[in-house]
From TrEMBL:
This is Palmitoyltransferase. It comes from the Eukaryota. It catalyses: L-cysteinyl-[protein] + hexadecanoyl-CoA = S-hexadecanoyl-L-cysteinyl-[protein] + CoA. Residues 302-312, 331-340 have a biased composition (Polar residues). Its EC number is 2.3.1.225. The DHHC domain is required for palmitoyltransferase activity. The chain crosses the membrane at residues 14-34, 50-68, 168-192, 204-228. GO terms for cellular component: membrane. Residues 299-361 are annotated as: Disordered. It holds the Pfam family DHHC. The keyword Transmembrane applies. It is an enzyme of class 2 (transferase).
Length: 361
């Protein structure tokens, strides 16, 4: 007999797919309602019917493609150098004193390109995955793993939205919004005619009326969500970072990863324009290291000058991380048009003497 805990986990895993099933059923019904009931059964003009069906199928295919990519793209694991080796794990487990544990983790972290810290100033360590968290990486309790550049765990896709699938998630929002707006706009005329009894009272009436209300309602909510994530992309922030600014050596800085709107956009969508609108992976980098810019141009916050900030200066003098090899595309992102001061700050790393082990979920 299976233990009760295992049955509960199985039930939880099944229930997690309910929102995905709901969206899939809505999409399947909308396809039937639009193609069969509206285009085939109701619209009489052949030219209008062909144009509507062509545009509709393009949007529907892109919507389904990006949705499935968001669902089934597995999160990427942090690079192996961020994981504790077997000897380090045993050494850390044998130590009971926090000071000794700090020394072990300090030794492991000193050569890693880690710039963010916990709120207390410690290097971020996950005691469940047994790794030093790369910048912008967080442990997801639902997935029970560390997610690179974690944005949020989305129940509508039953997956974490992070570095591996954030572009797919953005395209899913964009194409689903266009899909709903197109259905609403093309269905409006026939909705008014049915409402005013201008067309025969057939089975199509229910589908056309309900499809209009559903599409217009989804359009409003999707518009707000898509606009919010467009703002996040332009600022190079995740949802988690928007609620709590990432902590650097000198303190919290919500614009620490922002390189300007164009470069921020290319970090998510890549350098090649031909892939921007396709749900294929083209994001820059490896998800473990990110260019940083510790100068804040946002008028909401005062600008930080490294020459005037003693904490940054002393930290840079105390220790330097060796520069981490980057993909060619990310190297271009760093070097193309970036100021010398920003490059110097990107190469600086700090080791925090107040290192502690903290679990962060």
């Amino acid at each position: 007999m299976a233990p009760s805990g295992s049955r509960r986990d199985d039930c939880r895993r099944v229930l997690c797919w309910v929102p995905v099933l709901f969206i899939s059923l809505i999409a399947a019904w909308s396809y039937y309602a639009y193609v069969v009931q509206l285009c085939i059964e109701t619209i009489e003009n052949m030219g209008e019917k062909i144009v509507y069906l062509l545009i509709y199928h393009i949007l529907f295919i892109m919507f389904v493609w990006s949705y499935w990519q968001t669902i089934f793209t597995k999160p990427m694991n942090p690079l192996k150098e961020f994981h504790l080796s077997h000897p380090d794990k045993e050494l850390l487990e044998r130590e009971d004193r926090r000071e000794s544990q700090q020394e072990i983790l300090r030794r492991i972290a000193k050569d890693l390109p880690i710039y963010t810290r916990t709120m207390s100033g410690a290097i971020r360590y996950c005691d469940r995955c047994l790794l030093l968290k790369p910048d912008r990486c967080h442990h997801c309790s639902a997935c029970d793993m560390c997610i690179l550049k974690m944005d949020h765990h989305c129940p509508w896709v039953n997956n974490c939205v992070g570095f591996a699938n954030y572009k797919f998630f953005m395209l899913f929002l964009a194409y689903s919004l266009l899909y709903c707006l197109f259905v609403t706009a093309t269905d409006l005329l026939y909705f008014i005619e049915f409402w005013n009894n201008g067309l025969p009272d057939t089975q199509a009436k229910f589908h056309i009326m309900f499809m209009f209300f559903a599409a217009s309602t989804f359009s409003v909510s999707l518009a707000f969500l898509f606009a919010y994530h467009c703002w996040l992309v332009c600022k190079n922030r995740s949802t988690l970072e928007a609620f709590r600014a990432p902590e650097f050596q000198h303190g919290p800085d919500k614009n620490g990863f922002s390189l300007g709107t164009s470069k921020n956009f290319r970090q998510v969508f890549g350098d090649e324009k031909k892939y921007w609108l396709l749900p294929v992976f083209s994001s820059l980098g490896d998800g473990c290291s990110f260019p940083t810019c510790l100068v804040n141009p946002d008028p909401e916050q005062p600008s930080l000058s490294p020459g005037r900030n003693p904490s940054i200066k002393s930290a840079g003098e105390s220790h330097q991380f060796p520069p981490k090899p980057l993909r060619e595309s990310q190297s271009r992102l760093l070097n193309n048009g970036q100021s010398e001061g920003s490059e110097d700050r990107d190469k600086r790393g700090t080791s925090n003497p107040a290192l502690t082990i903290e679990k962060e979920t």
